[in-house]
Amino acid sequence: MLLVALNLRAAVTSLGALLDEIRDGLGLSGAMAGLVTTLPTIAFAGLGALTPWLVRRWPAARVLVVAMLALTVGQVLRVVTGSAAVFVLTSALALAGIAVANILLPMLVKQHFPHRTGLVTGAYTMALTVGTTVAAASAVPIAHAFGSWRAGLGAWAGLAALAVLPWVPLALRTRAARRTATPAVAAARPARVQPARTRLGWAMAVYFGAQSLSGYAIMGWLAQLFRDAGYAPEAAGLLLAGVTALGVPVALMMPTLAGRLPTLRPLVLSLTAFSTAAYVGLALAPHGLAPLWVLLLALGQGAFPLILTTIGLRARTAEGTVALSAFAQSTGYVIAALGPLLVGILYEATGGWTAPIGFLVVALAVQTAAGLVIARPRHIEDER
Question: Closest Cα partner for 294 from 250, 244, 248, 252?
Fold first, then answer.
């Protein structure tokens, strides 16, 4: 699971770090480059929704093996092509693998570690954060060392291939078990869970979407904000990296805290307070106390590991977990796609950061309202 989690953003952040070189190398137009940078949220929203259908037909371990193979093959093919169109298509193949794995991991945690959900979720969320940071930081140095952007982008295919190997024996065992299952066992499967028909499901989706919206907006625009405040480009980049780096211990601790508390209300409100303080600080004094705002942003972004943990806490069964995970993430990523776009539009229209930050504060208020709904312990299987 940790090997899989390391791969869940590397293919995305390494591309972002090398986008200028890729545009020059393949002759990507501005529109094509925009499509490439928007592909992750499109894939995560659209293809993630198909995962429960896949799991109902094949064992989860087999689906994960195919997903990771798609990620591996997609990353290899996109660095050997000279065609912009093929690059986009093979990137979509790689992202399809990530989209399915995104949904499967909470289910697999519930299935294999039902009494250690918080601990394992924290560990894989931390691994995801580490993979994100390392890929973003090392893609350019790798490209420079080998003299080509293709090396900096393709290196992560090896990590994806490595993540496949431990799952192959389990996939073969589950295949044999599926063949020998009796009709009575098949008939005893629980009824399909439909989160879209429940208040809890929609609250989870809105919370996931609102926190992802702010996360993508921060990743896309925080460095520009600091550059506008007077920081050199290198320093602005380091401050942005600080948000991700400081998020590693937060990702590890948050699921454990969530699993021990009788209600998530204190965590939801604390995360809101951290993010609010950071936004106010960025609006009023972006240069003077920048390290403090970075720390507060990292704490506020603890909403991401919190919602991933809550997916497992709000479902009794593996089937309920994958259904809730698919709905919350696929719907949430549709909401998240608006973040960088609207922040960019507001920034360009106003020439400053007051309006974009105000938009993020409104999104935070929506996130908090949804968070208070999901804070009370209950299960998706009981919702009607």
Answer: 244
Which position has the higher pLDDT, 20 or 239? 239
pLDDT in tens, 147-182: 999 998 999 999 999 999 999 998 888 665 555 444
pLDDT digits (tens, 9 = 90+) for 365-375: 999 999 999 99
Look-up: residue for tokens 């609250």? 203
Within 13 Å, how many C-alpha atoms sit on residue 64's CB side? 30
Positive or negative torsion for Cα 311, 312, 316, 317: positive
What values do phi and psi take at 92, rounded to 5? -65, -40
Structure tokens at 22: 């890729």
Six token digits for residue 155: 């290196």
Q: What is the DSSP letter of 114?
A: T
- How far apart (Å, rounded) are the C-alpha atoms in residues 3 and 66? 15
Burial 193-210 (b: 16+ CB within 10 A, else e): bebeebebbbbbbbbbbb
**Where do the DSSP E strands lie in 191-342?**
none
- What token pair was written down for 103? 């949904």
Question: Quick check: helix, strand or coil at residue 336?
Answer: helix
